[in-house]
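Entry, Tuesday afternoon. Goal for today is a structural model of the target with zinc ion bound, before we commit to ordering more compound. Inputs were pasted exactly as handed over by J.K., no edits. I checked the ligand SMILES twice against the vendor sheet because last time a stereocentre got dropped in transcription.
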Amino acid sequence: MIQATEWNPYYYYPKQCEKQGEEFFSRYQVIFEIGCPDEKMKGLKETNLRTCRFCGKKKPYVTFHKVAHVIPEMLGNRFLVYDQECDDCNGIFGRYENDLANYLGISRTIQNVHGKKIPVYKSKFDEIVARFEKDSTEGDYLSIKRSEVGKDNFEFDKEKNQMYITYTKNPYVPLKVFKALMRTALAIMPQHELKNYKFALEFLRTSKHDDKFMGFGIVHTYTLPLLTFRFEKPSAFLFRKKNPKDPLFSHLFVICFMNYEFQLFIPFHESDIEHCIRGAIETPWMPPILGRQDPTEIGEIIVASRDFNSLDKKIDDVDKLIIPNLFKDYETMPFINKETDEIYEKKFEPEKVIGMNLQFIEVKEDNNKS
Ligand SMILES: [Zn+2]
């Protein structure tokens, strides 16, 4: 692991990303880091003193009744709130978050993400239903059921000792998923930079420019192994290019939550426009950051750049989830005779499985940060 000393000595990134890290940190520097507090925040402005940073309006033209979260509540942020988002803008952004939730699929339920409550997950056509169940005697567990046995939505991989759950996500509009992330980036943007993002703010709040400005909605994602790694609470970072003359996007936004790290370059900074006209802007991505040193515990990190430049509702996004370390033995499994409470062994027949209750196996949380 390489220590990200130039930025924050508590962070590390994998050795194989050495070159990528050198390249990135030579061109970008962090300007803002934010994590989620454990309790309610104090010191927010009175509502009649507030100005919305997205639409620029104050009372009485807009209201500020709703609690506005800096990082979406649905990603596990309970208390990081702010006083710069009016109810109108909050309503618009809330709709983008529905798309983000559908894009994330079953993962929030599986990872026990506490926003308001842990969501019950139902995939398209209710093929897969996952929910958290409380059990004070045996311990809480996650129940995952499928609507039909014999389908290939549950697969058991004996050799790798893992299982795959395949399901179709509920429909979402890719550009709205991008806007949900872009909203969080602009929520933490320093105030003095907002004047350079006037167009971006309008692009974000309205659909006026959706069809004209495609091509910027790229999200670079790192997926860490499910159930073996999880960021304890969401956090977000903003980087700025070191040399203003570099033909790069001015700001890169990084958000870490659950077992994901998402990165996006924020489009439409006024001084970036000349670079856009000259040609495609380079996009150096930051290596995956981790707050711990032992890489052997982490396992494989899946890297992907995803394209969210579409207004067409995505109705067929199939997700294949990997659940690791399920069984010790696939050949025979202990079964309980419900009448006699007797335990007996029986051959395991995966095709007959209708559902499972998973009891968590310790998830190592990444709370080793400053
Ligand atoms: Zn507003």
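Residues 87-104 form the longest helix (18 residues).
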